[in-house]
């Protein structure tokens, strides 16, 4: 199972917007004695036993189809080939979750290419994370706008302009989503809500029409980036991207990666 890195929020689309980038993790399952092998990113820090989060995700995917059966993991060899750097705002944990759930569904006989399987995978992954901004593009690819109707998670694709490229500035320090999320305000002024809503709408229109003239303004945010970017020169990095011709730039996920378009 291959799952791409994802960039969530995209400026104003907090917990709702996300798109996939051309960097993938792979999860390989084979018959054999239980072992967890990790290659690449995290190979010196990720657990190589049942405490590895991917193992639980595989079990959860399988039990979604067979709730009364236990997956015999003692007969499975797990190998993670990781290319997504962890704790950098590129959806590494979401990639692990989605790959594990997808593998579990496949072991339960589900066709991962089938629309109904992808829909189930979205529900499982978004329920687990509590928000769909990373998992939706990890499953469907492209630029996804996702919501919760109160009964289910729904996602729709937004057209990507032809020839658009993403440039990533990935710092050598980590940022934990749980910590940065805890620092965000629980309530915001109406003016801040209007600020983000208007820019989120403009961002979607910029992508869908290919008119990128206003994209630099559509990527602005006042809800999460000022908090998450306070510990490093986020504004200066975004300004540097614009000075070199970027159409848009924003903090990727919880950071510290900055993405320019």
Produce a short descriptive summary.
With 261 residues, the chain is of the alpha+beta class. It contains 9 helices and 9 strands. The model has no long low-confidence stretch (mean pLDDT 96).
What is the element layout, followed by pairings?
Layout: E1 2-8, E2 17-31, E3 35-40, H1 53-65, E4 76-82, H2 92-107, H3 115-129, H4 135-140, E5 143-148, E6 153-158, E7 167-169, H5 177-182, H6 190-209, H7 215-218, H8 225-228, H9 234-243, E8 249-251, E9 258-260
Helix pairs in contact: 1-2, 2-3
What is the 3D shape? globular
User: Helix- and strand-based class?
Assistant: alpha+beta
Query: If you consult CATH, what is the topology of the largest domain?
Result: Ribosomal Protein S5, domain 2
Approximate helicity band: 25-40%
Please report the distance between the alpha carbons of the first and last residues.
Answer: 28 Å
Mind telling me the CATH class of the largest domain? Alpha Beta
Count helical runs.
9
Tell me the total number of β-strands.
9
- The overall average pLDDT, rounded, is 96
Main sheet record: 6 strands, mixed
